[in-house]
Amino acid sequence: MSDNGTIVYTLKDVALVLKVHPETLRGWVRKGMPRKKIAISGRKRFEYDVKKIKEWATVRMTGNQGGMEPVMSDKELEAVKRNVEKFKGAIDFYKVNRADIFVSKQMKYQDLADRILETMTPEEISAAKLTEKLAALKVLDTGAAIFYDKERLERGESTQNVSVLVGAIKALKRKRSGQLTE
Q1: Domain end call among 35, 50, 83
Q2: Which of 6, 25, 116, 118 has its CA at a distance of 20 to 30 angstroms from the CA of residue 65?
Q3: Distance of CA 125 to the CA centre of its chain
Q4: What is the rounded CA–CA span in Å between residue 141 and residue 163?
């Protein structure tokens, strides 16, 4: 071990300093743990900078029941960095326009529900089993309601009684289309 205690020459010494099992370190080496190749007495050896290893592990490793588990390798980390840069504009646009994006998605679900209802005749609606009707409407209503809630939350508005309002709007639409009688 060196005088300052940060440079060591065996995985066993790294394990002792970091208080991890040598097998854990072998896994870290496969994931790209920093080490420097050196020659000692004509033989290939490695030099380990414990400070650099700690920094590396902090970025790439997470606790796992007292041990350490790899989150991502150096190659994976670099790929993530490239993707963030590549999509930075889209990410920034999303951050600024989330509420409006949610409105758009909500309207798509609502439009789909309306188109389905418009294509069905009163006879088809009457002939369909109640469970089929409820299942179809539940899927569409749930999707629209989720995006409605997200949009309201993004705008800082209350989402209380949303299901009551959505139900009332749908009842009015059905009444207007003649599919619902008093």
Answers
A1: 83
A2: 6
A3: 39
A4: 9
- What burial class does residue 53 get, using C-beta atoms within 10 Å of its C-beta: 0-12 exposed, 13-18 middle, 19+ buried? buried
- Residue 37: both structure tokens together: 């190749």
Whether residue 110 sits in one domain with residue 57:
no
Q: Are residues 92 and 163 in the same domain?
A: yes
Spatial CA neighbour of 31 closest among 62, 49, 57, 11: 57
Q: Is residue 125 part of a domain?
A: yes
The residue range of the domain holding 95 is: 87-176
Residue type, 51: K
What does each of the 182 residues of the chain score in pLDDT, given as a tens digit? 444 558 999 989 999 998 888 888 888 888 888 999 998 888 888 999 999 888 888 776 655 444 455 566 777 778 878 888 888 888 788 778 888 888 888 888 778 877 877 887 888 877 878 787 778 777 777 777 777 777 877 776 765 556 667 777 888 888 888 765 55
| Residue 75, in any domain of the structure | yes
Verify that 118 and 166 share a domain, yes or no: yes
